[in-house]
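We give its fold:
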Amino acid sequence: MPTLRRQLPSANALFVFESAARCGNFTKAAAELGVTQPAVSRMLSLLESHLEVQLFLRTPNGTVLTENGKILYQGITEGFQSIERAIQEIRARSTGLETVTLSVSTAFTTHWLMPRMHKLQAEFPSIDLRFQLISGSVGGSVEDVDLGMRFVSGEDVHHQAALILPEILVPVCSPAYHEQHLTGEHRDSGVTLISLSDSRIDWFELFPGFQSEALGSAHSLVFSDYAVVLQAALLGQGIAVGWMNVVSYWLDTGALMPAPAKSTAIATERLCHLIHSRKKPLSSAAAEVRDWIIEETRKDVAKVASRYPELELEALIAPTRR
């Protein structure tokens, strides 16, 4: 450590460098650190002088790391993560609470997790849950969290993965909307399709039954947050594509139903996993939460399969269990 101190202008240089490297922009790093952009530039220039290497390449669009910068960033990131784990362990010992951080969609949190939060807290009274919420398409790094819900093919060199479900889709609506727009004399009056703005789902390609000639003229509501898409469906505003790992609770309770009633679910090539970085060993508390989410989801789906056998959910899930 004395050698390290001599190689740095100050310990603060590490925090400034980490922020600038992660943000890719000195101005954004300055805003994050609560200092001015010139102060960030001066500290990084001083760090480069001490190390006698160039760490950043300045470009019109921001900054990129040099090879030396990448080496330093990897070392600092791993070091900071180790320090963070140590602090969390100390806090857990002093408070009796262990923190588990989840990177999940706002939709999953709102429509799947919240209805059973009391059950989760009763199951794990010594776990303090924190969330990194994603409003659009689910993705991004899981380096700073314990677990992330992602649609990936499986494990890779950077991540370990536990399968929840294949990506299963089914059109859903409220029973009231179904009664008013999809049955009897109202069958041909047109429907409203509720969509996610950045979704890759093509209603008419994946669900041919929603061609305009089949259900009348189709209107649309488009939102950037899937949580709002489902809320609109629950309030009887139209038909939404239901991701089974999110809508299973509402299908089980009857607040949502397949639309039309004879709908069949489809499985895509994608698989929904809970993943974590190999650089950050999974704590026993995080592993327990992971296993609980998987078990609860599969229980939900089994109930939905029993309630709506026409969806043929067991046939869609079976291949992933082999």
About this structure: The mean pLDDT is 84. The longest strand covers residues 159-173. Residues 96-166+272-297 form a domain with the D-Maltodextrin-Binding Protein; domain 2 fold (CATH 3.40.190.10). The longest helix spans residues 67-95.
